[in-house]
Design goal:
Length: 604
């Protein structure tokens, strides 16, 4: 509720202006990033910006009909101008620029006048010809506003406040400039190495093919294409006017932007043409997915052009299948019939000659058309047997390929294997394995065996019978274990009575953890790499345990239980200590208190 009041009172604008003043004052000393005041302000602004995103702008939008609201609007306009001026003259780190970029669209507070003014600042400061410098992430402080505006365009959320800014960006020509930049120097025909984009029967000469390859190579090497696609994706997010504009945009050569995006998403790298996509296929596909979303006015056009290419791919697959079947049929008895079928219209003498030739060729193989003359021409059986009985040279077995010998020499993996690399302690003895597990907090009242004496076994020892049953009198347990347990029970009896009497009347609960696992193991190093990949996924980023649940056979998990044993002695001690510390931290956060010792985690 306090943060909601801060949003309604325009606190993000004031705090951001204050932060920029602090950074400007500390800029000469080089302490802007380590100053505690700057850090505190940045954290507070991040929290408020997150609240703005989660509230879809409803917490900052205000009716501008009253005089008080008009006065606030005038003050917001002047504050926005001063804020942009301060951003332009300050040296901001990239994380802080990202925070400001996320916060910037909400500083209009849903007012059309402020949105229009901010949109004009986008047009004034974003130089599309310098997008290559932004793509290389160079720290050029003279272009801080440009970097901020480009990041804001790429990460613009879908809500009413941001839709107001999107509308103004269309009207001021910013979206037209970005789309024209994407279509600049784009070839007029699809890549020649992707046959599914060409109509059946189209033939390309070698000269035209080389020209197309050169044109696409020059286009793919253009700097700033990926940020431009990212801006189109961010601006088109759930905004019908922007989707309609992008879907119907055509270049000066009457070339459709949708068609070009489809060409890029349907092709891949070409080694012969020396063309590298550099990730453009993924962003083009993401843009078309946004244009084809439910409710988009151009969804039908995108689906039609994709369906056309998909049908062409099926035709190519069927042609290749037919060719493969024909080539397979050429090696069999039907080849002669297939070869003689076109000659059915020839005269009878020629056809009989062909049949006679085919019969003479097939007779030794199949034993057809045998007669007395053929049998008399063969040598006597005795000579044949003598010839067959001659010793034959033994055939040498074929030599095995090197890769097969190497595979046979590899040791088979036994025991648990990692869910990512499919290797365990045999092939990776120096990597620490763990089990994906789910830890849950449970409370057990002291009166229901939730006390320490019930957990450590004191109650069990003090409840031992005075003597063993006669049936077990001569057993090993009666001779070795029972006397020692009785001796310990006598020592603990006095201290246990006082604790048991207090537990009988106590209603206070103690908290423990229960752990379940699906038995899926993973290396800690593989989990860290997979977590980083899930977080940086361009289309569907996932949290750590959301991605881990997919690797855990879609079973929920929130911790990795380290597997430490004598068989894993090659694992560095530092890795074991780090893994146990992470498990200890997860359990502590779950319980709300830190255990005094790591022993219970080791004895889990």
């Amino acid at each position: 509720s306090n943060r909601k009041l801060l949003l309604q009172s325009r606190a993000p604008t004031i705090l951001l202006r204050l932060l920029l003043d602090v950074l400007h004052g500390l800029e000469d000393e080089g302490l802007s990033e380590s100053n505690p005041t700057a850090k505190g302000l940045q954290e507070l602004i991040e929290i408020l910006a997150s609240d703005m995103v989660s509230s879809n702008g409803t917490a900052v939008k205000r009716d501008a009909t009253t005089d008080e609201a008009r006065a606030d609007a005038e003050q917001d306009a002047s504050t926005l101008r001063l804020l942009l001026s301060a951003i332009e003259t300050s040296s901001l780190s990239r994380p802080l620029r990202n925070v400001i970029a996320k916060l910037l669209p909400y500083l209009t507070y849903g007012q059309s006048a402020l949105s229009k003014e901010l949109a004009m600042e986008f047009v004034r400061h974003v130089d599309l010809q310098r997008l290559g410098e932004y793509e290389l992430e160079c720290e050029d402080y003279s272009q801080v506003l440009m970097a901020t505006f480009v990041h804001a365009s790429s990460s613009l959320p879908a809500n009413e406040v941001c839709h107001s800014l999107r509308t103004e960006l269309i009207q001021c020509g910013y979206l037209d400039r970005v789309a024209s930049f994407v279509m600049q120097n784009c070839p007029s025909e699809p890549p020649c190495w992707t046959s599914s984009l060409w109509v059946k029967g189209d033939q390309l000469t070698s000269k035209k093919k080389s020209q197309l390859e050169k044109q696409w190579r020059i286009y793919m090497q253009r700097a700033g294409l990926k940020p431009a696609f990212d801006m189109l994706i961010g601006l088109s997010k759930q905004h019908k006017a922007t989707q309609s504009f992008v879907g119907t945009f055509k270049s000066s050569k009457q070339q459709s932007l949708i068609e070009v995006c489809h060409w890029i998403e349907s092709t891949s790298d070409s080694t012969s043409a020396r063309v590298t996509m550099k990730g453009l296929g993924l962003v083009a596909e993401t843009l078309l997915d946004e244009l084809a979303s439910d409710g988009s006015p151009v969804a039908t056009e995108v689906k039609d052009i994709r369906r056309k290419t998909r049908n062409r791919k099926k035709e190519i697959a069927m042609e290749r299948r037919s060719k493969a079947l024909v080539s397979m049929g050429a090696f069999g008895p039907n080849k002669a019939a297939a070869a003689s079928s076109p000659n059915k219209a020839s005269d009878e003498n020629n056809s009989s000659g062909v049949r006679g030739t085919a019969a003479s060729l097939l007779a030794p193989v199949f034993g057809f058309f045998q007669n007395s003359e053929a049998s008399s021409s063969q040598p006597p059986p005795s000579k044949r047997r003598k010839k067959d009985s001659s010793p034959k040279k033994e055939e040498e077995p074929p030599a095995k390929p090197a890769w097969m010998a190497e595979m046979e020499d590899m040791e088979d993996e036994t025991g648990l294997t990692c869910a990512v690399c499919q290797e365990g302690r045999t092939l990776q003895p120096s990597e620490l394995l763990g089990l994906y597990a789910y830890v849950k907090k449970v409370s057990v009242p002291l009166s229901q065996c939730g006390g320490r004496s019930c957990i450590d076994g004191t109650s069990l020892l003090t409840a031992l019978p005075p003597s063993m049953p006669s049936s077990l009198s001569d057993s090993h347990a009666a001779n070795e274990w029972y006397p020692a347990a009785r001796a310990v029970a006598e020592e603990l009896k006095d201290t246990a009575r006082s604790s048991l009497s207090s537990l009988a009347t106590s209603r206070r609960a103690t908290y423990f953890t229960t752990t379940v696992s699906a038995g899926n193991a993973i290396h800690f190093s593989c989990h860290n790499r997979a977590r980083q990949a899930d977080r940086n996924h361009p289309k569907a980023p996932k949290s750590e345990w959301e991605g881990a649940s997919l690797r855990n056979s879609r079973v929920n998990c929130n911790v990795i239980l380290p597997l430490v044993s004598s068989r894993s002695s090659k694992v560095p001690l530092v890795a074991v200590d780090v893994a146990l510390t992470e498990h200890q931290t997860a359990v502590s956060n779950l319980l709300g208190a830190r255990p005094k010792s790591m022993l219970w985690n080791i004895l889990h």
